[in-house]
Amino acid sequence: MEYKLVPSICSYCGCGCGVLFEVMDGQLVGTMPLKSHPVSQGKLCIKGWNLHEHVISEERLQTPLLKTNGALQEASWDASIQTTAERFKKIIAEHGPDSVAVLASAKVTNEENYLIQKFTRAVLGTNNVDHCARL
Ligand code: SF4
Asked: What is the per-residue pLDDT across 33-85, written as a single tens digit (0 to 9) for each?
């Protein structure tokens, strides 16, 4: 059995508390507070203590879903990205870049959220980007 602690930052809000992810045999199993972190100093709120749960949840979506004929259906990543790109292009061509918006999530990494805001501003051409951790 291999057990290790991986330091990281809680992504659930702007406080940026320090966490240690507990990894057992390559699987994420828990979250601990990082005592040496200058912001949180070994403390976490209840959201931080449960930071790992969405990753290991059996309810987590494993594939993209596309709405077809009014119902969500599983789709490939290629088809989903293609459809999203086509719909963004059509809406922006007809109504301008501020007619679209992107909602990001605290349940992806900080690095992915950085890319999401960069894509929204630099590619889509709008500042309409938001994130649940802003609350
Ligand atoms: S959600 Fe809680 S643990 Fe996470 S950064 Fe914010 S205050 Fe810290």
From this structure: 999 999 999 999 999 999 999 889 999 888 999 998 999 999 999 999 999 99
Buried b (16+ CB within 10 A) or exposed e, 92-116: beeeebeebebebebbeeeeebeeb
**Ligand 1 atom closest to residue 43's alpha carbon, by position in its atom list:** 3
Report field, pTM of the whole predicted structure over 0.90: no
Measure 51 CA to ligand 1 centroid, in angstroms: 9
CB of 44 closer than 6 A to ligand 1?
A: yes
Candidates 86, 96, 105; CA nearest to 125 is: 96
Domains and CATH numbers, the chain: 3-56 (2.20.25.90), 96-135 (no CATH)
Ligand 1 centroid – CA 110 distance (Å)? 14
13 lines ligand 1 (CB under 6 A): yes
